[in-house]
Structures are given as C-alpha cells and as structure tokens.
Amino acid sequence: MRTIFIIPLLGLSFLCSKLIAQSEQLEDKVLSALSTLDQTQCPSGILYERVPEYYPLEYWRGNYLSDSTSFLISRFCMLHGMLQIMDINQNLTLPKMNDIVLDAQKLKSSDTVRLGILLQQYDRISSDAITNNLIYFENGNFYDVPKRIESPYRTDTVFAFSSFTHLKHKLTQPFILPSKYKNSSIQVNSIDIDFEDGTGYQPILVDEVLNIEFPDYGLYKINCRLTDFQGRTYIAQTIFEITPPKEGLDYSINADDTVSLNGVTLYCWYNKNCVDKKIKKPLILIEGFDPLNTNGPKIVFDEYGKGQLGLLGREYDDPNGKLLSEYLHDDDYDVFYIDYKHGHIRIQDNASYVIEAIDWINNRKHKDGSYEKNVVIGASMGGIVGYYSLKKMENDGKDHETEFFLSVDAPLKGANIPIGMQAFIQEFGDYKLIGTPLKSIGEQNVYHPDGNGLAKGQFALNSPAARQLIYYHYDSPTWSDCGGIDGDCRESFANLLSSIHDEFYEEFSDLGTLNIPHYGISNGSLLGKEQSFSIGSKLSETEISIDDLLQQSGFNGFWSGFTQAAVGIFIGSGFFSKHIIHALAEKGRHRVYYGGYGTVVLLIPIVKNC
Question: CB-based burial of residue 332 (10 Å sphere; 0-12 exposed, 13-18 middle, 19+ buried)?
Fold first, then answer.
C-alpha cells in the first residue's frame, strides 16, 4: 500500500468532474444576473456591467497620464473584448480581440511599429442605483424598479492608446497608425503624439509613417493626445523600450554539421585539433523533456535557461578558471547533440531513434579510423531515453561502444507534478475570457514561439511522454467513480492515476542493469533545504490579476522583463481570481485544488468556483 500518496476517489473525482463539465463561467453568471433588466433602456446600447470588471474603465477616461494606467497591447486588446460583450445588440464594428492578438503577433517582427487608438462612449449603472431605488437585487438577479423617477444609467467614455509591440533594438523606428486601428464613436479633430524623442507633440495622420529618431537606448513613455470637434482633449500613454542588439559570443556557437535522421536531428561539433572533420572521440548529449521543441542545439554552447552561455560553455566555478568546453577540447572530444524531432511522443519511440543516432555516430567514427569509446550523457528525460537505448542495444546484442553513461537529474523512478497543480493548469486554460477559453486566445500552434502559453502547458502535461514520466496523472484513461470511500477504493484509484507510469516503468525495470558504469547526478535543491511542506499541506495560494491571465495566454510574446517591471502594473479592479493548491493527504477525503473567479456588480459579488 503506497499510503502516503493515496487520494480518496470521491474527493478527487468531485474535483475533476468540475473540470470536465465546466459549462457555467463567470461571464455567463454576470450576463444571467443582468438578464432580468430591461436593457433597451440603456441609451448607448453598451452597458459596462455586462462584463466582469477585468479592467476598471474609469481609469481610462483620457483625463490624465500615469505609469499604472499605461497601455500594453494586452490591455488594449482586452478593452476591445470588454466592449464587445458590453454591446447589448452586438452592433459594434470594432476589431475582435483575438484578431488584434494575432495581428500583434504577426507584426511583432515588422520594422514598422503599429499604433492603435480607441475612443468609445458607453453607459454604466449609477453606483447609487440600488440605494436610490432605481434597481433592486433579488435571488441572484437585478431588476428594474417599476415607475422609477429617473434613469439608472450614466454616460461615460473610455480612451485607449497602445503600440502593438513594446520592444525594439534600433534607435530609428518607423511608426504607423493604420485606419483599421483608429476607432472612435466621437468625431475626431486631431491626433498628436509625443514620442519622448525631444521634439514634443507632433501630428499623426491615419496610414502615415512617422520615422522617429530616439536619442538613446532605454524606456520611453509615448503619449497620445486626441481632440474631438467639441474641443475636448483626451490623453493616454503606452510604453516602448529600445535595447541594444544582442552581441555574439567569443567562440563559434553553431554546429559544424547537421544530420537529419529518423525521429532525431544530430548536431555535430568536431574537435578543432583535427582539422579534417574526422570523428575521433564522441561525447553524446541526449535532449531532455522538450514537448514543444524549444531547446535545439543552442543549449550546448549558446544559451541555456536565462543565461547567455550553453551547458558546455560555462566555467562552473572551476579553480583554474577554464570552461568545461576547454577541458573537453583538450581531451579531443567531438560533441554530438541528439535533438528529438517530436519531444512529446512515447519514450520507447524516441529511444529507438536515439539507437539509430548512436549507430550512425559509431559507423562514421569507424570510417574515420577511430574505435575510441563514447561517453553518453542524458539530462532529465534524456537520462531515461539514454538508459533505455543503451540497455536495449545490449539486450539485442548490439555494441553501443560506450565507456560509461551519465544521467543528470533524470526521473529514474518517475516525476512528480502535484495533482492540484495539474488541475490548476487544466482549469486555468479552460476559463473563458470574453467568451473564449484562455488556452484558445491567439496563436494555437504550440510549436510557434508566440503560441498560447496555456495551450502549450496543457499539450505538454497531457503528452504521451509526460503521462509515462509523471507518477500520478490527473487524467487517467480509466477514470471512474467507485461509489465509496473505503481503503480498497482509494488504493485502486491511486493505481489508476499511475497506470500509464507504472506500465512504462515496469518495462523500464525489466530491461535490467547496464553492463557499463552508470553515474547518476541529482542537482537537488539549489537552496540546500529539505521539503518545506508536510503531507496534505497547502502548497500555494495565489491571487491572479487580469494582466497575469493575459500574460500566460495569448499575450506572452509581447512583454519584455524591463517593460513589465517598469510599468508596475497591476490595476486593482472588481475582478478577482484566487487559486489554492494542496499536497496529497495520507488518508481521508480532501480538496487538492480550488479555483475561484469573481467580479463585483453594484457592490454585489458574482462568483464562479471550481
């Protein structure tokens, strides 16, 4: 009995039934609560309270400038989405939110920076409508007070201005305001923009390109001033950052050769002590878990994680001050990196491709006149794939010609992602924002650099390789309600959650022990501390803002770290989102995940829980 990890079936089946059958959303609850009002009495036909208060539009009336109300493209898109739900009869002709997201992603690399302007009148329910007996709330719905003496609706205006990208690397930048993204329900007299380049405000015409010379690299606050035909002026601000282009490294970072094989791409760096590109002494690196194919050969010498150096191009606190690559070069190693073409597929399948790659290296090595032994290194999932490949070759009577195998932080017994965290990723992606699940906003190709982050997360979590590696996976293929909470039910439920994992690791164990030395390295905790939580304790409790929601979905490609920090950016609003994740309990029924979304309408909270 694996008592420490056993979860009661009823407790978790209740949770996952919520995730699977999530039909009611926060936006639906808000519209339902307002459906009992006679909304034809709203003068503009655009009612603020129809949408959760993701952003408080009263901060963007165009009256003042401040860092906290500066526009990013994510906020600009959301305002369009909010207005579309606010539109009672769906008559607005504004660009759709998702269309703006896709345009911004496609145009991010364009030399010309797009700008967008939105000026729109709408109505909101007066904050004292209930106390003045104009509207009343009963049994979860809002109602009109019959024969009221005044209207509960008040006219308001929102003014938005944003660049479509917030980061460039050239001091001379062309800007354009396309007619598609100049939208106003009020007749406009003039539009002027101050790019903070020292020239002050200058007029801009629709579809006219302005070439701006910025004085230096850094962060700029671009201000827009719009004047209507009544003489009223509106102002808004967006953020724009210019950083120097990235410089190259002191040594060659590109592979000398690239070989495409079945299922993998093999990248080769020949030892420069041999000028004729002959393979003498292979050092073979096997890629780790890479379901989105984001790593590639750059992690060897170019870039790994947030650093500017690759895995082999670092000093690692060497007392002699030498890079690891220098030692490898001195010892005549040729470096090979095995990159999966599909990092999400079954481990057995990628192992078969790695065997082909090892065979290719050995055959080429023999042709070049060398019979030196290989060194094979597998990091993370690469440790499992590498072990499986080498042992399969041994069992099949094939010589892998390997001196020793090194696994680094390899899940040799499986990986652990808390069930509550898995549920959070699933539920988070399924939450509907402006009628669209967060995972469905923007670019849907998970291999695209600007693909939706939550769609990527769900794809990776539910991939065949992840299901094999993760000890307990929330989405068991044999999910069922056992109808009880006795010990047998709990034990069978735990087994079902780990059935795919158990099946693979049983096969993995049956391969046997390698006939060569196997050295396992675990990085452990970088803090040097033991696990800080106990069985069943709370792992995480967090409140997520609308900016956080957008950043993790279709807007992840628009933010630079400096810009995000400089804008400061959290505008408090009536929208709230809270998420709690618990570790597994030893026994008994308990909740492993709670997710709550809510908004406030006339001081009345409207909440959707999961």
Answer: middle
**In whole angstroms, what is the distance from residue 348 CA to residue 355 CA?**
11
Model pTM?
Answer: 0.83
Residues 553 and 439: beta-carbon distance below 8 Å:
yes
Strands 576-582 and 538-543: antiparallel
User: How many Å apart are CA 468 and CA 462, to the nearest integer?
Assistant: 10
Rounded to whole angstroms, the Cα distance separating 420 from 541 reads 11
Q: Which two tokens stand for residue 53?
A: 């208060």
CA distance linking residue 403 with residue 375, whole number of Å: 6
- pLDDT per residue over 393-425, tens digit each? 999 999 999 999 999 999 999 998 888 898 888
The CA-atom distances, in angstroms, between 315 and each of 252, 253, 273, 303 are 17, 16, 21, 14
3-state secondary structure 279-298: CCCEEEEECCCECCCCCCCH
Q: What is the pLDDT of residues 71-105, one digit of tens each?
A: 999 999 999 999 999 999 999 999 999 999 999 88
In DSSP notation, 147-181 reads T-SS-SEEEEEEEEEEES--EES-SEEEEE--GGG
With 0-12 CB in 10 A as exposed, 13-18 as middle and 19+ as buried, what is 600? middle
280-308 residue pLDDT tens: 999 999 999 999 998 888 888 887 765 66
Beta bridge partners of 210: 175
- Name the residue among 375, 247, 366 with its Cα closest to residue 312: 375
- Other beta carbons less than 10 A from residue 402's beta carbon: 23
**pLDDT of residue 586 exceeding 80:** no
Alpha carbon 349 to chain centroid, angstroms: 27
Exposure class string for 382-395: b at 16+ Cβ within 10 A, else e? bbbbbbbbbbbbbe
Q: Could you write out the DSSP letters of every residue in 48-80?
A: GGGS--SS-GGGGSSS---GGG-B-HHHHHHHH
Q: Quick one: three-class SS letters along 386-448?
A: HHHHHHHHHHCCCCCCEEEEEEECCCCCCECCCHHHHHHHHHHHHCEECCEEHHHCCCCCCCC
Neighbouring residues of 170: CB distance < 8 A, sequence distance ≥ 6: 242
Half-sphere exposure (Cβ direction) of 514: Cα atoms closer than 13 Å = 23
Q: At which residue do the structure tokens 């780990």 appear? A: 498
Mean of per-residue pLDDT scores for the chain: 86
Rounded CA separation 502/421 (Å): 21
In whole angstroms, give the CA distance from residue 600 to residue 607. Answer: 9
Sign of the CA dihedral running 364, 366, 368, 371 = positive
Cα 56 to Cα 73: distance, rounded to the nearest angstrom: 16
Sign of CA dihedral 63, 68, 73, 76: negative
No. of H helices and E strands in the chain?
Answer: 15, 25
Q: What are the φ and ψ backbone dihedral angles of 172, each rounded to 5 degrees?
A: -100, 115
Buried b (16+ CB within 10 A) or exposed e, 201-224: eeebeeeeebebebeeeebbbbbb
Kindly report the number of other CB atoms within 10 A of residue 136's CB atom: 12
Quick check: 117 and 71 in contact, CB under 8 A?
no
Q: Which residues pair with 285 in a beta bridge?
A: 337, 377
Residue 283's closest CA among 177, 181, 191, 361? 361
